[in-house]
Amino acid sequence: MSEAVTLRAPAFRREPGKLWIVPPAALLALLFFYPLVLIARQAFLDDRGVANVAEVIRVLHSRFFLNALINTVSISVAATAGCLVVGLVLALILAFVPFPGSGFIARLIDTFIALPTFLVTLAFTFLYGSAGMLNAGLMETFSLPLPPVDFLYSAWGVILAEVTVYTPFILRPLLAAFSLVDRGQIEAASVLGARPFRIVRQVILPAAIPALIAGGSLCLLLTVNEFGIVLFIGAKGVITLPLLIYGKAIQESAYQVACIIAVVNIALSLGLFGLYRFAAGRLGA
Amino acid sequence: MSAAAFTGTSVMDIDAAKVRGAGSNVHFDKVSVAYGAHVVLHPLTLDIAPGEILAMIGPSGSGKTTALRAVAGFVRPASGRIRIGATDVTDLPPYERGLGMVVQNYALFPHMRVEDNVAFGLRAQGADKALIGERIKDALGTVGMSAYARRYPRELSGGQQQRVAIARALAVRPRVLLLDEPLSALDAQIRRNMVEEIARLHRSLPGLTILYVTHDQTEALTLADKIAIMRDGRVCSHGPTTELYRRPPNRFTAEFLGRANLLPVTVAEAVGPKGFATARHGDALLTGAGRNEKAGDKSLLCIRPQHLSLTADSDHTNRIVGTLQEVHWQGELTHLVLDVDGTPVRVSATRLPIALPEPGAKVPLFFAPADTSLLPEDAGV
Amino acid sequence: MLVWSRSGRLVLWVLFALIFGVLFLAPLAVILLSSLADQWNGVLPNGLTTEHYTDVISGAAGRAVKASLVTGFLASALALVSGTWAALSLRLQGHALRRLLGLLFFIPSAVPSVSVGLGLLVAFSHPPLLLNGTIAIVMIAHFVLISAFTFGNVSAGLARLSPDFEQVASSLGARPAYRLWHVTLPLLAPYLVAAFGLSFALSMGELGATVMVYPPGWVTLPVSIFSLTDRGDIFAGAALTMILVVATLVLLLGLERITKRATGS
Fold first, then answer.
1. Which residue among B94, B168, B178 sits closest to C170, beta carbon to beta carbon?
2. Looking at CA atoms only, how far is residue A8 from chain B in angstroms?
3. A7: which chain B residues are within 8 Å (Cβ-Cβ)?
4. Does an H or E element contain B326, and which?
5. Which residue of A129, B162, C32, C62 has the lowest C-beta tally within 10 Å?
6. Where is the chain membrane-spanning (chain A) (predicted)?
7. Strands B87-88, B343-349: pairing kind
């Protein structure tokens, strides 16, 4: 023991391989981390480049910022909760009460991950908009003078759209987790007379919890960052942090304000990213 | 099924001179390997002669695979040197060591045909086309896989894939062939055939040095010229295969290599000029092959189950008596378990008396002094 | 089978059909329908027409499709090279550095796209790095946003690759470069193709960073869909969205087919 430890390893050929990481790392540093640092710096400089800390305090206490922050967090939490419920129900049926073609349907839902998020919002305009199919139908049927369904241009419209778009992110890890659940165990429990609800609670859910936590934290992150859905709905009262940054920078050219809000938004996102990595790490372990 | 059954040609038909391995010796000089403070291989000094098959066997975690990977260049020794032939390879990267390697899961490149797999090493080393073509033919012929050159690995059975993996290693004319548990992914029937084929292969390539790592003692006993038994990162014994089996130097070797009955004895008369000592086990005075035991030494008398007989023979001058406990008939062999003064003793018999004794009966057992070996009682290494 | 009674199963399937229909099927169907709608005053369109498609294709849409395809292709190709390069060279690092850098390469996927765009505007609006107003800044924005996905895909592929392949290749005399080109990269090919396909799809649908940085002459599909619908031309917007969806699906299915053929599985 002592001999092996005390004798130093001879100089193996020096590995120049360690330097190969430099080009991609440098590219990422220049194109991503450098701009990120500049956002943080710009948050403390006014648009002529003079230090202005008072502006930071003003923005952080402003009504438009606080409203956007509350909107962002509450929409994100509600949408994630919706995704978890819908994802769990769909996954349970797909995995344990399969029907002809359920495999194809699962893949179809999965391709929603690759589609642009605003597609759903645009579709919702046709479905639930003031001149959409649902309102037109209700107005014709009941001879109403005004469109009765009016949730689309509110936080509820954003939440419903986000549930559609982000449920596949819950469904994917859940189906993977369910595929590992021992079918024999479920059959044995059924033979012993356990009701389906009991089997779900005692056998299936424990297996799903890591996937729910990992998928849920990913959903939180993605919904906090969501931009397209909120932009397309374009409701006056529903402003989130990303939308506010866009408005301040592009429409008002108020770069310092945009950067201050961006710093908060990025910090929130990185915190959720940390949560997701932690959850996913536990899932993998 | 053997290679002959697959292809209609026999491995023995191949002209041995065409596929020579240019064998070199391998020398471990105080090689140790450690991961941080955890030592997986204690300083190991060992020689593999040119053309020799050395089997390293031992339980998992005993350091045998680490020793092989140190030769291949995948683990860096913490101390010591490794030489192949005249070259000190300790600081050479794997691709400059001139080896061939076969691993448990074959690791055939799935995107290449069989012939391209076999040609891989030569192409990587920039050999010319004519030579490559010739070597593909030779190597595939040697393992009886010529008919499968255009197939992809996924179209082959496990045994066939392992033959191709061996051909791929042979095609580069390695100085040393490293076989890392090459048969453990195969099922028992195919494994037995492959052991015989590797033995045949080595007869046709007598110059090829082979380091064969396995946990299976049957593979080692069938193939190896010499065996090194590893335990806890150390060589626990090392020697010619038959010698190690007949005269195990310690208890671990006796029990790991084949089955052994170990009777505790006290030496009564020291080893004489013919190499035999007399020892006392209870009332019985027994003669056994010894090393340098002296009168009064506590020792173990090792007797293999197949060397114990229920009937006396002219050279079976040793006799012990046990109580029969169990009888297991297995067709070719019958296994008996007896209790000899508290020591369980197993007997494997091919011929049995017509009237088999009942369990509980006192049964005499006979064995020849030449079939025994005295070894130190120390339970450690 | 969890639920044994026929009626119980039927109830669950109806529930599934309802959720699936409302959330997933209806949006796709209605986009398709509206892209073909002549006029739409009631529950269903008054008539069908391909006019919106001919309109958008003869108008700015052709240029938008081209801008999206070129941006997606170049950004994905760059992300593929850089992500593969990073994943491969990360294996040569020590344990601690590998974990840290692995995390850093993932972070771009966590930062909101609008902020990535904002950062690029702040960083590259002044000489010597004046990229604001060029096509390059759009490419860079897309590259940054998708780089983490290619890196992640390739890393996952590498983690699943048995080390035996590369070790056997080395022992047979293959130098690192030869081994990389003839063993590692071919074995990673399915993951590389999947990574490229996903990157391309993400780039095609990217909106947040693009609206921050795009120059007047380089309007991508999502941006032009937004400006169409913002003007109230939602039928043309739907037609353009269908073009985007079909282009994305054709691309993904095509790549999947190539992968299947190449790996023979």
1. B94
2. 6
3. 32, 78-80
4. strand B318-329
5. C62
6. 21-44, 64-97, 109-131, 151-171, 203-223, 229-247, 254-276
7. unpaired
d(CA A120, CA A161): 6
The predicted structure's pLDDT at residue C42:
67
Residue of A nearest to B36 (CA): A5
Give 3-state DSSP helix, strand, coil % of chain C, rounded to 5: 75, 0, 20
Closest residue to A10, CB basis, from B33, B34, B91: B91
Q: Are residues B179 and B46 in the same domain?
A: yes
DSSP strand pairing (B372-376 vs B298-303): antiparallel
Q: A276-281 — which CB contacts under 8 Å span 24+ positions?
A: A276/A214, A276/A217, A276/A218, A276/A220, A276/A221, A276/C110, A277/C103, A277/C106, A279/A210, A279/A213, A279/A214, A279/A216, A279/A217, A280/A214, A280/A217, A280/A218
Q: Report the pLDDT averaged over residues B295-321.
A: 86
Residues counted in chain A: 285
Residues B136 and B29 in one domain: yes
**Touching check for A64 and chain C: CB below 8 Å?**
no
Distance CA C204, CA C246 (A): 11
Q: Within the 232-261 window of chain A, which residues sit less than 8 Å (CB to CB) from chain C?
A: 232, 234, 241-243, 245-246, 249-250, 255, 258-259
Fold of C59-263: MetI-like fold (1.10.3720)
Domains in chain B: how many in total? 2
Cα A258 to Cα A271: distance, rounded to the nearest angstrom = 20
Look at C175 and B124 and tell me if their CB atoms are within 8 Å: yes
pLDDT at C254 > cutoff 90: no
Residue of B97, B120, B154, B173 best to disrupt the C interface, most CBs of C under 10 A: B120
Which tokens is B94 given? 């794997």
Residues of chain B found within 8 Å of residue A12, distances taken between Cβ atoms: 76, 91
Number of domain units in chain A: 1
Distance between CA atoms of A257 and A255, rounded to whole angstroms? Answer: 5
| φ, ψ (nearest 5 deg) of residue B308 | -90, 135
Q: Is residue B13 part of a domain?
A: no
Per DSSP, the three-state class of C152 is helix
- Taking the CA of residue A21 and the nearest CA in chain B, the distance in Å comes to 21
Count of C-beta atoms within a 10 Å radius of residue C110: 21
Q: Is B78 close to A11, i.e. CB distance below 8 A?
A: no
Query: Which residues of chain A lie closer than 8 angstroms to B90, CB-CB?
Result: 10
Q: Do B184 and B319 share a structural domain?
A: no
Contacts across the B-C interface (CB distance below 8 Å): 76
Interface of C with A in 137-166 (CB under 8 A): 140, 143-144, 147
**Residues B108 and B167 both lie in one domain:** yes
> Does B76 touch chain A if contact means CB atoms closer than 8 Å?
yes
Contact partners for chain C, using 3 or more CB pairs closer than 8 A, are: A, B
For B23, the 3-state DSSP assignment is coil
If pLDDT is split at 50, 70 and 90, which confidence band does A283 have?
low
Residue C162 has pLDDT above 70, yes or no: yes
Report the relative pairing of strands B234-240 and B87-88 from DSSP bridges.
unpaired
Distance CA C88, CA B91 (A): 24
Which residue of B77, B80, B93 is in closest CB contact with A13?
Answer: B93
Query: Does the pLDDT of residue A101 top 80, yes or no?
Result: yes
Examine the domain organization and report whether B266 and B234 are in the same domain. no
Q: Exposed, middle or buried, C208 (CB in 10 Å: 0-12/13-18/19+)? A: buried
Quick one: angle between helices A63-96 and A205-225, nearest 10? 150
Chain center to CA of B331: 26
In chain C, which residues have their Cβ closer than 8 Å to the Cβ of A109? 20, 24
Position B5 in a domain: no
Residues of chain B with pLDDT > 70, as a percent, come to 93
Interchain proximity A31–C34, CB inside 8 Å: no
Displacement of CA A99 from its chain's centroid (Å): 29
